[in-house]
Amino acid sequence: MYDLLDIACAAMAALELDKVSDKEHAFKHVMNRVYGYMTPPARADYQEWVERKGWKEKERIILP
């Protein structure tokens, strides 16, 4: 219950911040807290959705 309250308070605080970098930091905190409560199938669905949107580039690992 208190984690949900913490998430809601962090989201409201992020909206009140002036600097964009501070807002991004606060919203990443919210996203991380919510992501921690997602089930593995929900996380997989989220990752698939992000890939479909093209927001996150696929990482390439180049070994020497």
Would you write up a description of this structure?
The chain has 64 residues and is mainly alpha-helical. It has one domain. It contains 3 helices and no strands. The longest helix is centred in the middle third of the chain and has 18 residues. The mean pLDDT is 85.
Q: Work out the count of structural domains.
A: 1
Mean pLDDT: 85
Overall strand count: 0
In whole angstroms, the N-to-C terminal distance is 49 Å
Structural class label: mainly alpha
Q: How much strand?
A: under 5%
Low-pLDDT runs: none
Our Rg estimate from Cα atoms comes to 15 Å
* Biggest sheet architecture: none
Anisotropy-based shape:
extended
What is the H/E order?
A: HHH
Number of helices: 3
Helix fraction by DSSP (H/I, runs of at least 4): over 70%
Task: Provide a brief overview of the structure.
By secondary structure, the protein is mainly α. The chain has three helices and no strands.
Which features characterize this protein?
64 residues, mainly alpha
Secondary structure blueprint with pairings:
Elements: H1 2-16, H2 20-37, H3 40-53
Helix pairs in contact: 1-2
